[in-house]
Specification:
alpha+beta, seven-stranded mixed barrel, globular
C-alpha cells in the first residue's frame, strides 16, 4: 500500500471506513488485493449484521465483496458473490474520492447508488430521493454535481457492457 509519502509498505489488511453525513456508518476489516496509487481493491465478507433484503438482491452472511475504491473518482464498485463464488451482481456507491492513509480506506457516502444484476439485465438507480433530501446540492453544489455525474457514468458503463473498463482484466479476478 502506498502511504502519504509515496513509499510502499507491505500490508495484507486495511480497515474500510464508510461515513455518511459526518458519522461513521460502518467500519470493517478487508484484505488488501492491490493499490496502484489511484485504485485500491479489497476483499471482505458481508460486514453488516444479518441479512439485508433489497427486493432485487439479498446481502447475507457468507457473501463476499470485492471492492474497488478510487482516489480520483466519485464512486466505489463492489462485486458481490455468494460464499460459493456465484456472482450476484455489482453494488456501486457514489462517494467522495477515497482517502487512503494509516491502514484505512475512508469514503463518504453521498446517498446515490446503482445496482447491476449478474447478467447485466437489471440496472437500477437507487436512493435518488435520499440524495435530493440530503441538501447536498445547496450545501456543496460542486460535490452534488460530481455525484450526479458519477451515477450517470456508472449507469452508462453498466449499460455498455459492464465495469471491465475500470480495471485491468487481472484485477477482476484478484
Amino acid at each position: 500500500m502506498t502511504n502519504e509519502t509515496g513509499k510502499t509498505g507491505k500490508t495484507n489488511e486495511v480497515t474500510v471506513v464508510l461515513s455518511k453525513a459526518g458519522r461513521v456508518k460502518i467500519k470493517y476489516p478487508a484484505g488488501l488485493l492491490s493499490d496502484d496509487g489511484s485504485r485500491v481493491s479489497v476483499r471482505a465478507p458481508w460486514a453488516a449484521e444479518g441479512v439485508r433484503d433489497f427486493g432485487f438482491v439479498r446481502f447475507e452472511p457468507g457473501d463476499v465483496f470485492t471492492e474497488h475504491f478510487w482516489r480520483d473518482r466519485w464512486y466505489a464498485v463492489k462485486e458481490v458473490r455468494t460464499g460459493a463464488g456465484v456472482l450476484k451482481g455489482w453494488y456501486c456507491d457514489v462517494t467522495r474520492p477515497a482517502v487512503v492513509e494509516g491502514g484505512e480506506v475512508r469514503i463518504e457516502d453521498l446517498d446515490l447508488d446503482l445496482w447491476v444484476s449478474a447478467d447485466g439485465g437489471e440496472v437500477l438507480r437507487l436512493d435518488e430521493d435520499e440524495f435530493a433530501q440530503s441538501g447536498l446540492a445547496q450545501r456543496d453544489p460542486h460535490a452534488a454535481a460530481q455525484a450526479v455525474a458519477a451515477l450517470d457514468e456508472l449507469e452508462a458503463l453498466a449499460r455498455q457492457g459492464g465495469f471491465g473498463a475500470l480495471w485491468p482484466a487481472a484485477a477482476a479476478t484478484e
